[in-house]
Design brief:
With 287 residues, this protein is mainly α. It has helices at residues 3-32, 35-61, 75-103, 113-140, 143-170, 176-203, 211-219, 253-270, and strands at residues 226-235, 238-247, 274-283.
Length: 287
C-alpha cells in the first residue's frame, strides 16, 4: 500500500470514530442542556470534518508533478491543514454562544450518571485516535495527520475538564459548566492558532532542515572545494534544495558535471526527505 492510500485509510478510520464521539456528545449535551458537553461535542465534530477535508487534501496532494506544477502538489496538504485551524475558530463561535446562554441562565445543565459514562467512553476513544494518528503521521511523514492528532489531543484535555465541570455542577456549583465550556473554547482557539502558524511557515518556504548538514554532505564529495548559498524549501518530507559548489577551475565541463551529480546523489542518499537538488558549479579562485 502506497503512502497516499495509507494516509487515506487512517483518515477514514479516525473519521468513523470521531463521528461516533461527536454524535454521542452533541445529542446528549443538548438533551441535558450542558454547555460543556455540547462544546466538547462540536470540538469532536470538527475533528470529523477535518478528516473529510484531509481526504480531499491528500487526494489533491498525491497528484504527480505536471507542466503547471513542476514542484508537485504536496503543498495542497499544507493548505488543507490550515483549513483545520480555521474550522477550529468556527467551533469557538458556537462554544462561546453556549457559554453565554448558560451564564445568563437561559440554559441550566442537568448532570446525570449517563453524562459521566458517555464522557469517559468518548475520551478513551479520543486517546486511541490521537495516539494512532500521531504514530501513523510520523511513520508516513504526514504533516496533516500530525496536525490532526494535535487537534484530537486537545479534545482529550477538554474532556477531562468537562468531567471535572460535571462533578462540580453535581456538587452545587452550576457556573462550573459554562466556565469549563469557555476553557474548552480557549483550548480550541489555541490549537487552531498553532496549526495555522506552523502550516503558514511551510507556505512561505521557511527552511525546515539544518542547512549546515547539507553543506557538510556536499563537502565530503571528492572534488568539492567549498559549498555556499544553500537554500531549501518544501515540507518536512518533500524538500527541494539548491546550492553552489566551488571546484578546480582547470576541470573540464564533463568532470565538473560529474562532481555535481555526485553531490546530488550524496545529498539525496544522506537526507532522504530531499527529493530534488540543483547544484550550481563555480570555479574556485583560490586554486
Amino acid at each position: 500500500m502506497d503512502r497516499t492510500s495509507e494516509i487515506r485509510r487512517v483518515l477514514l478510520i479516525t473519521l468513523f470514530l470521531n463521528l461516533i464521539v461527536s454524535v454521542a456528545k452533541v445529542f446528549y449535551g443538548y438533551s441535558v442542556y450542558s454547555v460543556a458537553i455540547i462544546s466538547d461535542g462540536f470540538h469532536s465534530l470538527f475533528d470529523g470534518i477535518s478528516n473529510i477535508i484531509g481526504l480531499v487534501g491528500i487526494y489533491l496532494a498525491s497528484h504527480p508533478p505536471d507542466e503547471k506544477h513542476p514542484y508537485g502538489h504536496r503543498k495542497y496538504e499544507t493548505v488543507f491543514t490550515i483549513f483545520v485551524g480555521v474550522l477550529m475558530f468556527i467551533t469557538c463561535i458556537e462554544i462561546f454562544k453556549r457559554v453565554y446562554q448558560s451564564i445568563t441562565g437561559k440554559q441550566e445543565a442537568i448532570v446525570t450518571t449517563e453524562a459521566f459514562v458517555i464522557m469517559v467512553i468518548t475520551m478513551l476513544i479520543n486517546i486511541f485516535v490521537a495516539a494512532y494518528e500521531r504514530k501513523m503521521g510520523k511513520k508516513l511523514d504526514s504533516e496533516y495527520l500530525i496536525a490532526d492528532s494535535r487537534h484530537t489531543k486537545s479534545d482529550i484535555y477538554a474532556s477531562i475538564g468537562v468531567i471535572a465541570g460535571l462533578a462540580l455542577t453535581k456538587l452545587g456549583y452550576p457556573l462550573a459548566d459554562p466556565v469549563i465550556g469557555a476553557v474548552v473554547g480557549i483550548l480550541v482557539a489555541k490549537a487552531g492558532i498553532d496549526i495555522i502558524k506552523e502550516s503558514t511557515e511551510v507556505l512561505v518556504d521557511r527552511t525546515r532542515i539544518n542547512l549546515s548538514l547539507i553543506g557538510e554532505t556536499a563537502r565530503k564529495v571528492e572534488g568539492v572545494l567549498e559549498c555556499h548559498d544553500i537554500r531549501a524549501r518544501g515540507t518536512t518530507n518533500n524538500m527541494f534544495v539548491d546550492l553552489h559548489i566551488l571546484v578546480n577551475p582547470g576541470l573540464s565541463v564533463e568532470d565538473a558535471h560529474r562532481i555535481a551529480h555526485l553531490v546530488e546523489d550524496s545529498i539525496k542518499k544522506t537526507h532522504p526527505e530531499i527529493i530534488d537538488v540543483v547544484v550550481h558549479i563555480e570555479p574556485s579562485k583560490t586554486v
